[in-house]
Amino acid sequence: MSIVESRESRDLRAAVAALGRRHGPGFDRDTLWSEAGELGYLGVNLPEEYGGGGGGLAELSIVLEELGAAGCPLLLMVVSPAICGTVIARFGTEEQKRAWLPGLADGSRTMAFGITEPDAGSNSHRITTTARKAADEDGGGWILNGRKVFVSGVDITDATLIVGRTEDARTGSLKPCLFIVPRDAQGFHRSQIDMELQAVEKQFELVLDDVRLPADALVGDEDAGLLQLFAGLNPERVMTAAFALGMGRYALDKAVDYAKTRQVWQQPIGAHQAIAHPLAQAHIEIELARLMMRKAAHLYDAGDDAGAGEAANIAKYAAGEACVHAVDQAVHTLGGNGLTREYGLASLIAASRVARIAPVSREMILNYVSHQSLGLPKSY
Fold it and tell me: How does the average pLDDT of the chain come out, rounded?
């Protein structure tokens, strides 16, 4: 992995940054999504033969980071092209690829992702949403039952990629599998969760009540288990890092501009080390987290799933911490102005914590690193 970005990556970064500046913080989500899709940014990671850009997670993370740095992040990018697009591109049938990837690439079709459950939390081994094969006399296919929570954008997506569990015929144990559930499937119910956090994409609880799906709703191999699931979770962590870094950069830029111009005595407040040093520290933390994010994306794109797993978790942790610190310091730099609507920073206080909590808490990442990287025993 080169520490210096390629010319192509720098050009992509500059082009997306220009798009972000045209839309800015007051952006219309549908308009920006459509334009980004038409320009090829949403599908930059998907295979060229299905309408994508032929790049990888490294390129897609640039898109989300730069849009976030301009104040107009598209949270659904974490889910639709990164998780769902990647899983279908790697494990889907030819029919599934033709049906979904071109639309995911140009933004005309979107997909949500449902894994979290009320009682399972971050423990994917406790998922209780189950899928059983329907009898041939009943038309075959699958029948899904279960609940999901904190699923983003179900109301604006065409389908949801649901993580369920099927019974292994050989062992009788349950194994994770992925199913494409159309938004209008019978028995597929959603209710919006009332969130204090204000975001373009709403959060939903899902109930699957005897949802009948055709046999080809199953993505990939029924026996692949965790391999296919983690193929989507590593991109989710990398893209969450990109989301956090973009937000942190946006807040930091606001604070730096303010510190350069705000004058209380003879000099701008940015001349005082009590203001300058914390902002410099926030910048350092963002840059360090960005390097780890690029490493994680590089390893994933190179096919090193094991290496990408550690790096993606570390990147998500580092970016989440850097984002929260940058936002907090930005608000503190502006003082009372940091809480006004005019400067647009107060809403980031809650939003920045998303990167610490979702899609996996920082404590679970520390568990992962202590067990997988350091070889320490588990407490659970």
Answer: 93
Q: Cα–chain-centroid distance for residue 211?
A: 26
Alpha-carbon distance of 191 to 182, in angstroms, equals 16
Work out whether strand 174-182 and strand 218-219 pair parallel, antiparallel, or are unpaired: antiparallel
Its pTM stands at 0.94
Residue 315: closest CA among 294, 300, 330: 294
| Residue 64: partners with Cβ closer than 8 Å, 6 or more residues away | 73, 74, 77, 78, 239, 242, 243, 246
* Phi, then psi, of 263 in degrees rounded to 5: -125, 120
In contact, 155 and 164? CB cutoff 8 Å: no
- Candidate from 89-93, 225-229, 337-341 with smallest mean pLDDT: 225-229
- Cβ contacts of residue 116 below 8 Å, gap of 6+? 122, 148, 149, 150, 151, 359
**Average pLDDT of the residues in 144-159:** 96
- As given in the structure block, the two tokens for residue 69 are 């740095």
With a cut of 90, say whether residue 190 has pLDDT above it.
Answer: yes
Closest by Cα among 55, 35, 37 to 46: 55
Query: Distances in Å between the alpha carbon of 308 and those of 51, 66, 317?
Result: 26, 22, 14
**Is residue 225's pLDDT more than 70?**
no
Of 163, 99, 169, 97, the C-alpha closest to 133 is: 169
Q: Using CB atoms within 10 A of its CB, is residue 221 exposed (0-12), middle (13-18) or buried (19+)?
A: exposed
Do 77 and 16 meet the contact criterion of CB atoms below 8 Å apart?
no
Q: How confident is the model at residue 364 (pLDDT cuts 50, 70, 90)?
A: very high
List C-alpha distances in Å: 134 to 75, 141, 143: 36, 5, 6
> 145-162: buried (b, 16+ CB within 10 Å) or exposed (e) per residue?
bbbbbbbbbbebbbbbbb
Task: Decide if 231 contacts 305 (C-beta within 8 A).
Answer: yes
